[in-house]
Amino acid sequence: MNIFCKTLAVFIVLIGMVSCGGAKKAQEEALAQARKDSIARAQQNAILPIQKKYGTILSVSPKEIKPVTLYKFIDNWMDTPYKMGGETKDGIDCSFFSQYLFHDVFGHLIERTAQKQYDAPDTDKFIGQEFLKLGDLLFFNERGSEHMPITHVGVYLGNDRFVHSTARKETNSGKNGVQISVLSKRHWQKMFVAAGRKPGITKALSNQ
Asked: What is the pLDDT of residues 152-198, one digit of tens each?
C-alpha cells in the first residue's frame, strides 16, 4: 500500500471515530433533555397542598384550583378581620381587599371603593349569574337595588363561590373578615346587584 492509500485509510478511520463520537454525544444530550422535559411535566402536573385545600373548600377537583398565585394570595389573607377603611392584616375592608387582589394577582389597578369599582367606565356590568367567570367582581347592597349605593364587593372564584372581606360573621367559625362564601345563599342573593368584568383579566389569567 503506497503512502497515499495509507493516509486515506487513516483519514477514513478518524472520520468514523469522530462521527461515532458525535452521534454518541448527541444521543446523550437528547436523553438528558428528555429527562428534563419529563421532570418539568411531572412538576407541572403535581397537585400542590394549597390546591387540595381550596379544591375541598370550593368542592372542585384540585386541578381546577388555578392560578395558584390567586389562592396563595387568598390563603395569606384568609381570616384577616374586617375593618371599615382597613388596609392591613389588623383589618381590611371589602374594596381594598378586591383592589389589592386585582393588583397583586392580575396586575391591574382598580378603584379603591366598591361604588367606584361599580361606576368605573371599564366595568362591564351584567346581571346573569350564569355568565360569571373567575375574576368577576360581585356588587351588593342591603336591598339588592341598582338605585341604592353599592356597599359591598367580592371576587368570583367559580362553582358558586366568591372571596371577600365582610363584616358578616361566618356561620361555622363565627368570624368575620376575609372568607369564601356561597353566592347562592339567600343572604347574598337578596343583596346581589350585579357582576362586573374588568378588561384584561382573562388574558392575565391565561398568562399564569
From this structure: 999 999 999 999 999 998 777 778 999 999 999 999 999 999 999 99
User: What does the alpha-carbon distance between residue 121 and residue 130 come to, in Å, rounded to a whole number?
Assistant: 23
Question: Which residues are tagged catalytic?
Answer: 94, 152, 164
Number of other residues whose CB lies within 10 A of the CB of residue 23: 10
Question: Residue 2, class by beta-carbon neighbours within 10 Å (0-12 exposed, 13-18 middle, 19+ buried)?
Answer: exposed
- Residue 139 corresponds to which cell in the numbers above? 356588587
| Residues 66/81, Cβ–Cβ less than 8 Å | no
Cell of 60: 372542585
The DSSP letter of residue 185 is S
C-alpha cell at 16: 468514523
Spatial separation of the C-alpha atoms in residues 38 and 144, rounded to whole Å: 52
Report the alpha-carbon distance of residue 92 to residue 97 in Å, rounded: 7
